[in-house]
Amino acid sequence: MNFHLQFPIPSFREKISYSDKMLFIGSCFAESIGERMKQHKFSLNINPHGILYNPASIAMAIRRYVRNGKLNEKELFFANEKWNSWEHHSRFSHPDKNICLENINKYISDAHSQLTAAEWLFITFGSAFVYSLTDGKTIVGNCHKLPQKKFEKQLLEPKMIVDDFKQLFTDLKELNPSLDIVLTVSPVKYIRDGVIENTISKSVLIQAVHELVRTQDNVIYFPAYELVTDDLRDYRFYEADLVHPNEQAISYVFEKFGTTAFDASTLTVFEKIKEIRTAALHKPFNQDSDSNKKFAAVYLKRCTDLLQGYPMIDLEPEIHHFRALSGSI
């Protein structure tokens, strides 16, 4: 008997390699998968605006990256003893206005450079609900813990998302014609909107995403949402809050992603890096023993051998670690 539903995932037309540059943007699930990629030495930038949940705020952020559009101080506001941006996550907030603005604009500039040269853009939608200031004009990416009365809540329609992103994808193609775009829907449950409302929100996102995939040549879908909700389909794969997928679920999704998106050579290098990282995290009982020095020397050589074929991979922390353990420093 089968106790969970496995389903085939279409392989990516173009495969990811270690020479590729990538940008991940969207909900906290984008950060989870992006961090796994970064840990395994892929070249990528994750959420230059901080975590964003709704498609409108994500599109607004990407448009800034496309045109390298810097914020000015008039676009900041002061609340809770810090300067903040309505477009940005609170991790950019700061008591000093100049530091806040400088940090925001540095990340925008870096994202512009990354996006111009990137092979891949990964976008994860979290919720179709958007919050706007009561002026009815300013959609916010983060409410910065301000009173609810300052905001109006709206559910985006699929057509609104599709129309917005079709134009955005046209702009992206002008900036970087070789860019491939991967859309995902976050399996995180946004129950602060309500359980029923979360289901409605996800259905809006899924409908919009598949319309974009159907009509855009360079846009593909990776079913992270379905892998958690239909394949795993069990609360033991969630954190104690029953909202966020746990490490086991994220690892499962990432494993499926690798078999779908990586070519054979990338998978081989990925496994070598995984082994090197595991060795670097090993805590020896006796750090000064001969056996531990030999162990470190073996993995130091594996690092240097790997770099001969893949010089773009940053193994400097691991090399420094193994050199210190082996007595080479």
Q: What descriptors fit this protein?
A:
globular, 10 strands, three-stranded antiparallel β-sheet, five-stranded parallel β-sheet, 329 residues, alpha/beta, 14% strand
Short summary:
By secondary structure, the protein is α/β, with parallel strands linked by helices. The protein has helices at about 30-40, 55-65, 95-115, 160-175, 195-215, 225-230, 245-260, 265-280, 290-310, 315-325; strands at about 20-25, 45, 75-80, 80-85, 120-125, 130-135, 140, 150-155, 180-185, 220.
Provide a descriptive summary of the structure in words.
The protein is α/β, with parallel strands linked by helices and 329 residues long. 48% of the residues lie in helices and 14% in strands. The protein contains 10 helices and 10 strands. The strands form 3 sheets. A 5-stranded parallel beta sheet has the order 2-1-5-9-10, with helices on both faces. A 3-stranded antiparallel beta sheet has the order 7-6-8. The protein has a two-stranded antiparallel sheet with strand order 3-4. The chain is globular and about 70 Å long. It starts with 20 loop residues before the first strand and ends with a helix. 36% of the residues are buried.
Please mark out the parts with pLDDT under 50 across 5 or more consecutive residues, or reply none.
none
Q: How many angstroms does the end-to-end distance come to?
A: 56 Å
Give the tally of β-strands.
10
Report mean pLDDT, rounded to a whole number: 93
Radius of gyration (CA) equals 22 Å
Strand order of the largest sheet: 2-1-5-9-10
Task: Give the count of helical stretches.
Answer: 10
Largest sheet: 5 strands, parallel
